[in-house]
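Researcher: Re-running this chain for the archive, since the previous output was lost when a drive failed. Same request as before.
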Amino acid sequence: MTEEAQPAASPPEWPQPCQAAACARPLYAAVAYCPYCGSAQTKAEPAVATSAGAEQAPAVAPAAEKHSSVEALQANIAAKETAAEVGASSALQAPVQPEAKAAPRATEAAAKAGAKATAQPQAAPQPAGEKAAPPPTKPALSFKQRVVRWIRRICYTIGLLFIGIMALGYYVGSSGSARKAEQCTAASQTASTALAAGDIASAGKAAQQAVEVCEDQQLAQARKLLASVERAKSGALRCEQIQAQAEQLLDDGRAARAAALLTRNHNGCQARAYTDLSRKAAAAVNEARQQVDRARSRLRADAYDDADSLLDQALRLDADAAGAEPLRKQIADARAEMQARQQRSQSSTIAAPAAQPTMPAAAPAPAPRAVPSMDALVEGFLQDGERALQQKNYAQAKNAASSALRVDPNHAAARRLLQRAERAEQDALRGMEIE
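Model: Regenerated structure tokens:
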């Protein structure tokens, strides 16, 4: 019995089309599942195909639909095969009941496949009959590539460490610079104050500390301050040397020279000890001058011994006392004249004795004191001068030689003694100036 083939039903309208743009087109009625969108079309009705080969293939999905899973594609193929079998059998027998039974089975299979597709990540569809390609793996790095990568990492780490160290150094340096500036200012002020007060030792320590901590312009000022301290130190040392020389001159009985030496260097040496020594030298000069004046007064009174004693005191204070040399000559001349007068009077008394009455012989009168001769007097002056010259008392040696020349102006030994004393004195003065 031949049954007429029923015409294939037209694809029904989807009541709720897929939301994705790629799934918006309607599919064949035989497919009750949207495999690319993952939503089941529950109200789709299966269509009856005219023949087993009359069914057309579904439209190819666009590029965006390639992310569906392999399982969804297999489920779609299985659903289509089931629908094709159902359509072929219905074309031969033309019953409506089996067709109605096959549609729910296809719908159920499609729904299961869609549920699995939504639960798993979407993958690109693969052609039928081909295995899915394995996921790509990273190629193994060669030894050279690994070495290069490690070198890059090491360089990157070193660079980060260098940047960190530079940042830390900048922070520490900025804070240290401010602290050094404060220390520099304090040390410079301390050095200036100590230098103004005459404390050379403290000023030198503070100036040296300022040079060590100061920077830039402050360093130049600290160096100038240190140079000033060094000059002051040299000046102080020179003042100490001058002070020692002046004390030695005072001990040698040269108060006038000591006073002159101290006066010449008074501007550069103003310490208390130096000032006290200057006053001492000036007082010795004044005292020697007063002793010379007293000796002159005693000479006028014919007190030659007192005059000599006062003159000796004056020369002990100041061998260069003003007026001491002329006064020494005057005393020697007056004493020599007195001795000459005494000698003449004694000679005249012996030459003309007066007539005396005859009397018993009396005891002889004591012989008069012998008056020293001129040569003996000169010899005594020369001996005194030699002793003074050996003691480096050049003023006393010159005085003795001058006294000998006053007694005997043509005495060669006295003249040589005077020349030796003058040369020795000049040599001593040159030595002090060089020092």
